[in-house]
Amino acid sequence: MRNTVLLICIIFYSLNVCSQTEQGNKTHIAGKAAITNNGISFIPNFSLEQPAAIFNLTLEKGRFSFETELTFSLEEGRAWYQVYWLRYKIIQEGNFKLRTGGHVGLNFLRILDSGSNEVIKAERYLVGELAPTYQISDNIMVGMQYMIAKGYDLGTNELQHFLTLNANFSNIKISKLMFLEASPQVFYLSSFDFGEGYYVASEFKLSRSNFPLSLSSVMNKKISSNIPGKDFLWNMILSYSFGKGTISKP
Description:
Layout: H1 2-19, E1 27-36, E2 52-61, E3 64-73, E4 79-91, E5 96-112, E6 118-137, E7 140-151, E8 160-173, E9 178-191, E10 195-208, E11 213-225, E12 232-247
Antiparallel strand pairs: 1-2, 1-12, 2-3, 3-4, 4-5, 5-6, 6-7, 7-8, 8-9, 9-10, 10-11, 11-12
């Protein structure tokens, strides 16, 4: 596990160097590395509720993008979940935009085998997505996202539906160099195996102009739900980001 984390750090450092080199409008690359005091998920039974490391990488060319998210428990040194997105921008001109996509997800759980030995089990999910958005102004966006997920292992959620109404308020000026971004949402979650529920959540992000570090917080509050999980979860996240660079063809 240490070698895996070290390798990812080296890759992110190398990509950061590449992203700062202008080589023509080819394949765009961006990424983020973050640590949090509390790994939480909008899907209640996916929450880690431990300190965690999160690595994101996006490769984008034209209307297509490939996005990965790899997460690890900092307490136990094990994988938490992995997501591999393939997305396509159906409509990308004007104020209205429409995106579709799908991803393969892996959720890693500690379980006891038949001999009462603790092992790590990887649960596999296949997820589809449709996400329209509308840009009201330069700093205000509203949208929705619908996802349907199917688990492929014994004991996983056989079928899940996720529907959210969301908004994004960006570049809220705090001072000459500091900016706040708020992303509230209300969502509905339906699980074939565990029930259904309504939740409200929001992410607040504090950043400085032309500075790679940012501080954010995610909050998730249960409105009405019979899905097992805590009524309220929150965390703090320290992130290092690098913006879009380009990779030229060989």
